[in-house]
Design brief:
50% helix; mainly alpha
Length: 74
């Protein structure tokens, strides 16, 4: 904003709502939903179906996830 690359009025409008997203390490029960989201994205991108075994999702639920969702997507 100081550099002039972002509008000041827009910054203050967007800065009103704070979005808090707990880390994946605290949301193990959501792992299947997150994995399915990325699978759908990959299916659109590559034009083919992907599946993940339940044992793999169980393993992902037990992982510490220090980098959060970006680490899963990578």
């Amino acid at each position: 904003m100081k550099e002039g690359s972002f509008r000041q009025d827009l910054y203050f409008r967007l800065n009103v709502v704070r979005v808090v997203s707990p880390p994946l390490s605290e949301r193990g029960e959501d792992m299947a939903l997150v994995v399915n989201h990325f699978l759908q994205r990959f299916e659109k991108e590559y034009g083919r179906a992907f599946r993940v075994a339940q044992s793999a999702i169980d393993l992902l639920q037990r992982y510490d996830w220090p980098e959060n969702v970006r680490e899963l997507a990578a």
